[in-house]
Amino acid sequence: MKYWFNIDNIHQTVGPIFRTMKWLGFLPFTLDASANALLLLRMRPSDAALLAGWQLYIGSMFFSGWMETVQELPMSKIMIYFSLLMYVVMSVLTSVIQLRLARSRAKIERLLRMIRFVDELLEQLSHGVDHSRQHLGLVALIVASFLSSLGFVSVEWTVSWFAREQTPVWKEFFHLSATIFYYAVRFASLCPLVVFIGGLLALRTRFRKLNDAFRFHFDTARQLDDDEEDDEVDVDGTARDRLRTVAVCHDGLTEVVELFCDIFNLQIISACVSYTIFCIFAMYSSVALVTQDTSGTQFVTIFYITACLHYSSHILPIMKLGSDVRNEIFSGTATYTMIMTQFELAVPRFFMGALVPDQPNATNLLAPVT
């Protein structure tokens, strides 16, 4: 229990997700969560072996003969071709994402260091992040995703159990190798979505903390200015220092967003592709159920609708959290611009970045703060 209440930085917070992703072939690194680690991520031989094992497994399935079995299923040719397309697309994208993340060690390290830098600035603004709470939330997210996935799979297997005598689809389609391969790739493709949800939650929390700091320090400075007119120069100078800290913090957060999207953009594209394919399957099988109400059609319809709902349980939260982060960015920019105008400061760099192409990043703003 002592471990759970001694989480004091972002490196310790993301430990559970790194370990989970590693076992599924993503993020094949060992994370050093110490405070002053020069190299945060190291690829040990065991990490490389896990990545190589996943690559060999995905590649070997294209030579195991299951593709020929799928072509002999008692379904329409369109459904057969879509099934093959689903397998191929999910497999190739999963393999590519695993390799791409393995080559993104420097970007991931920079992302973690930037988040830690932002957290330190928020501490200076008296609005620090509760890392223990975020760590617990991340663990709860992983457990909830696992349990929901287990629930959806249980529904599919329950339906298949009752349909095993009425339809040959179950006997032909779910032979052992195809079953293991299908669920392994499906779970692996959903795992990065859990990371994406956790990342958006962390970004939303930090933007809200920063916006609270905007309003808190702006109101405090204004009250002090009204009550202590004799110290007007000192108050104004203190407020300027705080606002410069806020400027650097906001610029750092925007850079974190850019890095996060650059690292994980392919994962969300892969999820959307898989989600689209499952939705097409579900709609097509539902239409077929109207014209051909057989036990095989019922089984296929329930199976693909369940898979579609499984992906929806991850895609829809991402859409909601993405909208929240965007709104926090916009509200923060508006609030900060008002504050800077109030104190007669220059327009902040992160606001001018939308108009000026060559915008320096947050690393160029560190010197004035220190």
Automatic annotation (TrEMBL):
GO terms for cellular component: plasma membrane. It is found in: Cell membrane. One of its GO terms (biological process) is signal transduction. This is Gustatory receptor. It holds the Pfam family 7tm_7. The chain crosses the membrane at residues 48-66, 78-101, 136-160, 180-203, 268-290, 296-316. Keywords: Cell membrane, Membrane, Receptor, Transducer, Transmembrane, Transmembrane helix. Gustatory receptor which mediates acceptance or avoidance behavior, depending on its substrates. The keyword Transmembrane applies.
